[in-house]
Design the sequence.
């Protein structure tokens, strides 16, 4: 039996069709067969994080060429700073210079930044060509590679420019996690904890003491939850998909205010702690659950605080959050582990207290 047959598979149903998320070993080496079997095109542009290009790009190129595809490669400078309109423009020009046509595909080979950026490029080149996600971080495997959100940042905020564009295939190759730094593994666990908080108490219990032994099951469960949410609210119109942003309103603000020196998962972990305390005050979450969330964050080696950040700066960034409606920030809160809801009208004083808890920032005067 081949590795591709042994891979776990989750189907994601969207308005543009159904695609597969495969979780297993040696999937990168099978990417050529996968792309050929789906009939996605005859040329492939691999957009890869430059730090990973020497490690994984040759295997991807060989697999695609062996399947009869022309493969070209463009490296993306590592770091959140590349998730920009400037870098997107450079990549779009690369695709044009390589004469990629509509019967071509983009392969996103890297973590969340690479997937978001490459997906956005694919969604806009020639008004949209297919793309395949090959996530190389735990965070991207459990979250950002699934669901079709693509985009770039602006100086004014994170993910303010983008498009909904579903991948045609996601290959989560567990072999690439062997070379992933521990800090990146821990960062990915923040999103796993989030899925437990919003949808699955059993998953939360499984990861509450740290990284479990069975990564395949853990990743699959996260993808299953994401797939269910995307099927119910693909374009984030009825509030269901917004629940995936538990901890992200403040987390994204912390990430930006810290000049992206914190990993995404680290900032989200801090944001989840604040959201848990807001949930206790405004959604009825028991204090025991708040303590359990804080303990799970700490047990996975993630931070609980980001000292030294300005409360005023965080508030200004949050005011541009995508969930803001009519000037009001809507918060994803939880009444108990396993549940999430979108809540408007959380008092500013409560938010400022939550900010002070995780940043040690002085309380602002109500304005």
Sequence:
């Amino acid at each position: 039996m081949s590795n591709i047959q042994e891979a776990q598979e989750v189907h994601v149903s969207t308005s543009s069709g159904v695609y597969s998320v495969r979780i297993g070993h040696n999937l990168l080496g099978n990417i050529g067969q996968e792309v050929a079997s789906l009939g996605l095109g005859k040329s492939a542009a691999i957009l890869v994080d430059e730090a990973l290009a020497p490690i994984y790009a040759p295997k991807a190129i060989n697999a695609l060429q062996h399947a009869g595809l022309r493969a070209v490669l463009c490296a993306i400078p590592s770091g959140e700073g590349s998730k920009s309109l400037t870098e997107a423009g450079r990549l779009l020009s690369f695709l044009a210079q390589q004469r990629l046509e509509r019967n071509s595909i983009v392969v996103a080979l890297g973590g969340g930044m690479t997937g978001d950026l490459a997906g956005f490029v694919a969604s806009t080149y020639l008004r949209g060509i297919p793309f395949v996600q090959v996530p190389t971080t735990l965070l991207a495997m459990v979250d950002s590679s699934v669901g079709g959100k693509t985009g770039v940042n602006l100086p004014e905020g994170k993910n303010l420019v983008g498009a909904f564009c579903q991948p045609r295939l996601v290959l989560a190759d567990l072999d690439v996690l062997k070379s992933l730094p521990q800090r990146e593994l821990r960062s990915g666990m923040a999103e796993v904890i989030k899925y437990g908080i919003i949808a699955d108490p059993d998953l939360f219990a499984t990861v509450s003491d740290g990284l479990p032994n069975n990564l395949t099951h853990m990743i699959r469960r996260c993808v299953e939850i994401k797939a269910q949410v995307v099927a119910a609210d693909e374009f984030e119109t009825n509030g269901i998909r917004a629940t995936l942003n538990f901890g992200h309103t403040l987390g994204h603000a912390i990430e930006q205010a810290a000049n992206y020196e914190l990993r995404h998962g680290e900032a989200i972990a801090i944001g989840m702690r604040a959201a848990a305390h807001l949930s206790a005050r405004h959604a009825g979450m028991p204090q025991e659950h708040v303590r359990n969330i804080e303990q799970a964050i700490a047990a996975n080696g993630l931070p609980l605080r980001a000292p030294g950040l300005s409360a005023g700066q965080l508030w200004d960034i949050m005011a541009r959050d995508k969930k803001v409606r009519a000037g009001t920030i809507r918060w994803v809160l939880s009444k108990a582990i396993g549940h999430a809801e979108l809540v408007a009208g959380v008092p500013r004083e409560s938010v400022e207290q939550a900010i002070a808890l995780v940043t040690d920032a002085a309380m602002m005067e109500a304005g």
Remarks:
- The radius of gyration is 20 Å.
- The chain is about 45% helix and 20% strand.
